[in-house]
Write a sequence for this structure.
């Protein structure tokens, strides 16, 4: 806890000092900037005729950062020797592998509050170099995409930028994953770029759905209220990142699917016939229908689709207990003036 408090304090100081000077093409871990803005900027370059995209993959970036180069870049603005000494000790503190402490001569610990700002400090020199060359690009932490007008130009830029990274910043470029391709054949930060729209990659949507499925699994001992809170937190975060590229019909379908899974959780919690009948009657289901459903041997998933379940555990019921609608979040992103 003490370590995190100290690193958070250092990150705050470094951010106030360096953030105002960072490139406008840098979007990662920056206040007021987001994945969506980076994707929209990429779309703008595509609309201007920059139809080829250079994806440069930095191999194990956080694990291979050169300490001497990083400390040199930090020391250009930070003159406090105590802070520099503390930061150096943090970088060299070592890692525990299989119960044994091993020294760290390179790399920045991932997950630390100070790691994002350190990565931006190191790669800000790359941003300045790309701007000096007049390139169109976006960078989100160690994800870099450069836009050019031809494949030949892209191959030339890929070679020169890779050489600059390896020689000047001692950062290793993954040649196998770095490539030049048409914008339509590539992606930027989880989005497919089209001239008039953004589309969230299917792989991102699948991960989103898998996480939602985990939150709404038939696990005893987890209340519906706890599930609602977790759903709200995760859905809001994911939609803030990727919601601008989600299709409306997918948002609507996800809403219905989530509510059905929550209805299934209700059936799982009620479990025994007597409790099922009692809870259904409380919701306003007729006694005869409650008994019929309560003694049913159908699966929880099948029972979650019945007319009585849908009408009593309705959309209004879930809205009342705090469930946030994916459709509502979608409308806030695409039509903020009219969203309710």
């Amino acid at each position: 806890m003490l370590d995190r408090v100290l690193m958070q304090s250092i990150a705050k100081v470094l951010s106030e000092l360096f953030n105002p000077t960072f490139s406008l093409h840098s979007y990662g871990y920056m206040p007021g900037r987001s994945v969506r803005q980076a994707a929209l900027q990429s779309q703008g370059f595509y609309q201007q005729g920059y139809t080829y995209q250079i994806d440069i993959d930095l191999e194990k970036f956080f694990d291979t950062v050169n300490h001497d180069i990083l400390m040199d870049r930090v020391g250009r603005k930070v003159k406090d020797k105590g802070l520099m000494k503390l930061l150096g000790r943090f970088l060299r503190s070592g890692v525990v592998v299989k119960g044994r402490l091993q020294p760290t001569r390179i790399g920045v610990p991932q997950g630390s509050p100070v790691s994002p700002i350190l990565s931006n400090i190191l790669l800000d020199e790359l941003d300045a170099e790309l701007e000096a060359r007049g390139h169109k690009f976006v960078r989100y932490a160690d994800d870099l995409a450069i836009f050019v007008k031809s494949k030949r130009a892209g191959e030339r830029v890929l070679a020169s930028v890779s050489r600059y990274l390896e020689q000047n910043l001692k950062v290793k470029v993954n040649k196998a994953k770095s490539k030049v391709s048409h914008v339509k054949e590539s992606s930027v930060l989880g989005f497919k770029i089209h001239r008039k729209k953004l589309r969230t990659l299917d792989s991102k949507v699948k991960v989103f759905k898998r996480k939602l499925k985990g939150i709404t699994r038939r696990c005893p001992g987890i209340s519906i209220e706890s599930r609602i809170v977790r759903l709200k937190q995760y859905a809001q975060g994911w939609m803030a990142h990727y919601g601008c590229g989600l299709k409306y019909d997918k948002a609507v379908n996800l809403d219905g699917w989530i509510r059905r899974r929550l209805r299934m959780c209700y059936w799982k919690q009620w479990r025994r016939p007597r409790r099922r009948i009692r809870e259904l009657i409380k919701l306003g289901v007729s006694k005869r229908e409650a008994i019929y459903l309560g003694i049913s041997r159908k699966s929880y998933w099948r029972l979650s689709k019945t007319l009585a379940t849908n009408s009593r555990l309705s959309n209004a019921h879930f809205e009342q207990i705090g469930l946030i609608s994916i459709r509502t979040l979608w409308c806030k992103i695409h039509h903020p003036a009219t969203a309710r």
